[in-house]
Every structure is written in structure tokens, then in C-alpha cells.
Amino acid sequence: MKFDVFGIENPLIDLLAKVPDEFLVRNELKKNHMLLVDESRHRFLLESLDGVEVRLEAGGSCANTLLGISQLGGRTAYCGKVGGDEHGRTYISSLEAAGVKSYISSNGSVTGSTVILVTPDAARTMNTFLGACQELTPEDVPLEELKSSHIMYITGYLWDTEGQKEAATLALRTAGAEGVHVVMSLADPFCVVRHKEDFRDILDRYVDFVFANQEEALTLTDTDNTHEAMKVLRQWCSGAAITMGANGAYVTQGDEHIYLDPYPVNAVDTTGAGDAFAAGFMYGRISGASLFQCGRQGSYFASRVIQQVGPRLSGDIRRELAEVLDDQRP
Amino acid sequence: MKFDVFGIENPLIDLLAKVPDEFLVRNELKKNHMLLVDESRHRFLLESLDGVEVRLEAGGSCANTLLGISQLGGRTAYCGKVGGDEHGRTYISSLEAAGVKSYISSNGSVTGSTVILVTPDAARTMNTFLGACQELTPEDVPLEELKSSHIMYITGYLWDTEGQKEAATLALRTAGAEGVHVVMSLADPFCVVRHKEDFRDILDRYVDFVFANQEEALTLTDTDNTHEAMKVLRQWCSGAAITMGANGAYVTQGDEHIYLDPYPVNAVDTTGAGDAFAAGFMYGRISGASLFQCGRQGSYFASRVIQQVGPRLSGDIRRELAEVLDDQRP
Fold it and tell me: What number is the ipTM of this complex?
């Protein structure tokens, strides 16, 4: 086994800017939404931010998760596509510096990036230009590395373009044939709306374990309650986690059904809560923890990340986790 | 089968008064607590309320639940003890008017009552003088009626005096021998602290299904998380419900494990939320509903009762329930 978790998704550079609410209004942006935009709109938004400080970070949901797993001691690898520009080089080096093995290919396009507008209420309104991401093709997936991984991890964001879909489908088929455990995050509620039928089919055919927040789960399963959503998810997958923000989380696998208490915290910025949950949970999985411990680790990391600004944790989180879980052992 | 639910507990008259916070401070009362007081302290508190309007209502946790079940169409009976005074007669007639068959005995003592001090923040601070309640004895329990009931329902409040304990234990043994389904509510967290060992023993020996709020469940099982608490409760009982306020509820029975979403409401007064949950849930049980529907009915009633002042619902709640559940069917 070469890697504990092999992830495929969109390498995106985050471009963060603090703006007043009025900026959203002026640009007809819906607060808290993630919008896919084309290059000219993306450039227009950046130009509108003239004079505003723009912070640059390597982002992307799947990469956030892999980074967390890597920080905890897991062996991770990441596949995606960037352009042959400075953003692309920055992305790859930041991943590798964090211990995530890069299988990122590059081409002559522009590296994808997300303009993240942070309003004074800490809400994040995102405008993503996928750029090179959408040019990922089946040839970009290193199948031998994938085959020698314990878990393959993908997110729903891959279904936004045809090339990515093909690459993801090849990876899913390969993982299935080779007994690689397939874990999927539904990504975001709008992504679920865009690809509802595809996601249902994929979960049913390929996915062993699915992460969803409550809104994603309800949307995908066409119900108004979590219990029904879980029942439907479990008709497709052998396990599922539905995260419910301040209400905790509900995870099930085989015959085990576990309600997870939330950690009581003051949320500062909920970006990356789902990514952090997935990181803590999957690290538990690869280190042989019980479903309950996996869930607690996920909940703990989610609680940590929402107490700071930005989706990635710093510091010795491995040690911190060990202490916290030890403290709380009944 | 004569009754769907046969309840035993403390018939208490509620004496409600609106007071400023300063009243609690002056009388050294801890907000939101239920305190057992003796007759002289009780009289002192009532005298201190001179000039304040005091509203009188028939109360008691178990009676609240039976009333709810009766309103929904269930056949209920109630056993307890009152004094030979006006309060006692009022209590019995109010129960019977609500369709609950009274097996309340009376003696020469004073009927128990609770001074409920409602501060401007809607908190309720309770001072209960048990009075005649505590003189309930095994002879007061109508065993033939109990035997021909589907469910026997008790609350933890019965463990505060020896006579009540004996009466409850006789009832539990009789129910067990006759195959009557035994359901218990842990009553309140302080009650659990007072009788932790007794409750563990009773749950293990006699109780089929237990209702607890989160604090009660954690206290009883000496843990800091809901999942562990549920695991321990299920070592004792074949089913359990842990209500978690705004976080929803978690109910399990046999192999079924269900997380219940909360109904999104603005809480006005949380008094009686647990009683209402038990009413909705048990009515579901006696009408043959699934565990999920039982839980939803319980959650719905709890959400209704916290949107009003006081623990009892009025209006055609049976029809309301049918409409609500019908609306929400996926």
C-alpha cells in the first residue's frame, strides 16, 4: 500500500478579499453561494477589487482534506490539473510542502482560482473560475498509484465538466475493480442540485462511504428529514455521515448508527468544516479506529476549523487530537 | 385492554406567579431549578407573593403526558394521592374533565403543589411541596386496572419518598409479571442525581423503554457524550429516547436507530417539552406507528408546547397532528 488516501479534484487558488456587503449587491452576488464563473467575469471581479488587499492561498475542498490527513500522519496523494503559470507552481509546491504527494499535471491554460469575498459578518461568497481544472482527462489519473491506495477520495465538484467526469469515472471503475475503498463528499448543495441524477447513480454503483452535510443529503434524497435521507443514502452505500452543523452529526456504517454531539464552540468562519470532518474521520478509518472514534475525530476537527478564519489548520494537530480524545474517553 | 396508558405519579397543583429576578435573589433560589421544600417554606414563599397574582393549574409531569395522550384519543388512567382539600378536588375534576380516568386516592393531608416563579426571561424556578403525594402507598395502586393496560408509565419523581417507592415497585413487579409494557421518564436531572443507583437498577430490571433528556441521560450513565449514554441505556432497556432540545432527538428500539430533526421554532417556555414528547411518542406507540413516526409525533408535540406558556396544549391537537404528519410525509 503506497497511500492511505488518494484524492482527485480541483486544485484551486483561493483569492481572499474583505469587502462590504455593498460590494455583493453591486455585483449581484448571492451571499454564501459558490458560483461557477467564466474567465472574463472572474477577471472583472478581480479588477473591481482594485485597491483591496487580496490574500492568496492554495485551496480546494479535497486538497484541504488531504492536507489535514497528512498533518495527522496519513500518507496522501492528490491528482488534478493546473496551468503552466505561477499559480500552478505555487499550488503544487504548497501541497508537497504539506506532505501531500502531487500527481498534478499541468498544461498551457490558466490555473483555476476562486475569488472569495468575505463580508463583515464572516460570510464567504465564492466565485470559481475552474480554468485548467476542467481540462483534467482520464490520461491524467495515475492508475497504478490509485490502485495501491487504501482509500480513493473524490468530491462532487468533479462532475462540473465532461473531461473531469470521464477521469473520475475511470478512477471509480479502477478503484472498484481493485478493491480500493471509495469515499465521496457531495461537495456543496448547489453541486448536488446540478448533478443529482449522476450522484445517485455514482453512489449506488461505486461509492462505499459518503460524506454530506444536511442540506446536501436532503437535496440529494428529496426528503425533508435527516432520518429518511440517511435511509436512502444507506440503500446506496455501506456507510454515510451526515453533518448537521451546530446540531452535531449522524454517522452510520453496517449495523452501527451513531449520533455525534457537536463540540460547543463559537463559530468564526465555517469554511472548510466539511473538509475537516472528512479529514478527521478518514484518518480514523486508516488508523483502524472505531466508527465512533472516526466520527469524534471528524467532529473535533470540524469544530477546530470553524473557530479560525480559513479552511486549514496549523500547529501540531496530531498531538492535539490525541490529547483531546484521551481527555474525553468515558 | 381497558387503558392504553396507566400512569402513576405526583398529582401537583401548579401555582404560577410572575416575579422579578430580584425575588429569586432575595429568597436564595437558583433559577430553573426544581427544589423540594417543606410545608413551612412553601407557605413562606406563597406569603412572600402577597399582592402578586397567582394562577392555579393542575400540573405534574406524568399527568401532563396522560392529558396529551387523552387529547389525541388514547385511553388513559392516573394513580396518585391528593389531600381532602379544595386543591385535591380541583385536581381530580380537571383530570377527569380532560378524559383521564382518575384512580387518585385522598387522605386528610394537604394536596401537593408547586410554586412556579416565572421571571421576565421566561425561566421557571420551581418549589415543590409534595404534601399528600408522598403518602401514596402500595394499597393505593389499583392492580386490576394496571394489569389490563397496554403501557404502564412512571416518572423518576416517585423515588423521592419511601411510600411512593414501594407503590412504584409493586406496580413495576405487577406490570412485569403481566406483560404490561413499562415506560419510564427520568423526570429531571436533579432527580437523577438523587436516585442514580435506584434508577439504574429499575431500568435494568423492569423498564422496557426510557425517556431522558440529554442531561439526564449523561448524568445517569456517567459519560459526556450522547452516543455512549445511549449505548448504556440500551444495555438496560429494549428502547430509549434521548431528547436534545434544539439539537433534535435520538431514539432507538431493537435494531432501529433514528436521529430526529428538531422542528424549527422559537421557544417561549420549555416547561413540559419532555412531557409532550412522551405523550406524542406513546400515542404513536399505542396506535401502532413506526418508531420513526412515534419520534416525529413526540418531536412535534414538544415543539408545539415550547411555543406557548405552560405545559399543556389546547385545541384539536389530534387533527393538527394528522395534518402535520401528512404534510411532511416524504
Answer: 0.77
